[in-house]
Fold:
Amino acid sequence: MWKTSEIGHSQVEPATKQLLPPCQIKCPINEDIQRTNVLISLLPDTIEAARDGIIQIGEYLYERNPFFNICGYICGLCELECNYKNEGGAIRRRLLKRFLSDTYTPYLNEKPEVNIVKDRENVAVIGGGPSGLMAAFNLTRQGYRVTIFEASQRLGGALWLVPEYRLPRKVLQTTVENLVRIMGIDVRYNTKFGEGRTTVNRLISDGFKAVFIAKGTPNARQLTFGKDVVEGQDLSGVMYGLDFLYEVSHGNIPPDYFKNKKIIVIGAGNVAFDSARTARRLGGEVSIVCLEREDKEHRDGIPADEDEIRGAWEEGIKIYASRGVRKISGKNDEFEGITCPLCTQVYCDTGFNPEFDTNDEINLTGDVVIVTIGQAPDLELLKKENLLDHRGRLAVDPHTLQSQINPSVFIGGDVRRVGFMIEAMEEGIKAAESINKYLNDEDLKVASKDYEAFGLPERPYYKIATEVLWIPPEQRLHFQMFEKGLTLKEAITEAKRCATCGPCVSCKACISIGFEKSLYAVQVDKERCSGCGACVYACNYESARLVMKDGRLISDTDMFRCKSCGMCVAACASNARKMVDDQTAEKIKKAYAELK
Amino acid sequence: MNKPKIVCFSCKFSWGYLADESKLAAEISNWIPIICAGKIDAEYLVDAFLHGADGVLILGCPEGDCHYQDGTIETKKRLALLRQALAVYNIEPERIRLVLARDPEGKDIPGHIEEMAKAIGRLGKIKTAKA
Structure:
């Protein structure tokens, strides 16, 4: 089994301009995607032999992203930008991480606590979701003493709202519980922000030098039509998606709860689809009503992930697209039905601005309606804590996440802007950086990152992506995972597909496993170079190029793009190219001298 | 003739990367692991014969697996030309062999060398004087 060593550890440094593979740019926390793909592709062929390697790869990922195993179930943003997308399908990065998770998540229980001297300031983190945990993780690593104040009795925040058929409870629980154990982070459960001593002012007077507010936005948005709140939302049988998913995840809703019931879900985001598919799994006959159009490519298209839409459709959920809800009707305080006018436009150039044709209306009846049209901030609490500006909006610098009212307060995650898990995590990282700078009296200003993506290197063959297998719809109306994970063999094959578009400096997998000593620089001897261009032809990365110098064409190497593969050196007929410090020629010479 | 001397280049991305390299090197004579088959300069190959090798075996990655996209294709092109050039010096094309496969443990490498040695043995010594 290969062993990786520290020397080749890759990192993304914030630079004025940096070339990276597009997947790594797309990932809000710039995970080393190419690097882990290469490492996975070199794993042994049996799971027993591969275990150490998988854990080693997991340890690399964990350093930057202690939620990588969860990303393996529910993220996959990087795949949207994979260069391979149009050549047989994006590299199935998410499933590759899920594959690592199969071995790594159980290992978390035995992963030793890190040994960090925590002799720096006390920092309070409000909220134990992805954003708060990420900030706590990064602050702790720098020696800060972090206390997380969590409103509920468990960590994980909104991740608990992801249905179990997409993210197994055990994976989530193992991850969050071990994270605070491994890092030695203090957690106070059942501690609500704004109550008791958990207010900004009291925390500061209790000795916390900075407070990061990442409390999420757990309140559901009420249904409105035009400027008015739709009446009837207090009827029995009207519920909100967030509350519904919360109750399901707490095991408060028995199986078959919706048996022989007609359920209407209003909304078109992932949470709406999660609610609908969950209701379907509880035995209901489910329809979705949404303003958006079925055509996902359209500006007014359904925003939920394609997999969610496909899953819902396969599971027999009917979608009424381009329909608003003007009226909720009921009888004897019981929900009865909704009136849905045609929605002719959702967005205009200035943003959300739905328009309806009330001459074209349909009536839908049902037993339960689940409103899932987004989340609303708890403005009253935020106002009480003096976090809003005079217009009633969060007063926070979007780059540094520092409050514009109280410099020792930082705000991020869903409470600032509802988004993907990984975006909340990104804000946690940002907040930790800002807090560190703030407590060191440094300028908080963030250098803007300017990345340039690599294109797909030309390959003689492109391979088709490994097929993702879903349990057939009639067999998956339960809460077990419906998507099959990759086997070791599939994972190796899939990882090998990666065209490794990125530059070597952002990867260095070959150095970590001892294939190479360093990334050799290619030197061109200008006297020898004839400017023939054979090297340009041999190079697959647009690194070798011809430039005009002193009135003649000579070849040159763009070191940002160079992979030190040596193909240009081998192709050069006049020995003008060589790799600095590369010992290959000497090794060969030595072998020839001892020829047996 | 005595046992033919075979120089064996192997690409690190497909051959022997799970094995202990020094252990494997002790078992296999004249074995040169290299980062990519595409890096094997024509000069290295000619040099091998100049130093008394009877054959050169190149173990590359399966088609389409090259970490550097088309190292195997580059090698193939190079070998096609080189074999013609060597033929002028009476060095038979069979004296350079390319095998594209994957063998992480490297356990097949001795077998491949053995097999090639047998074939080269039938050809006998190179019939050209040292240049």
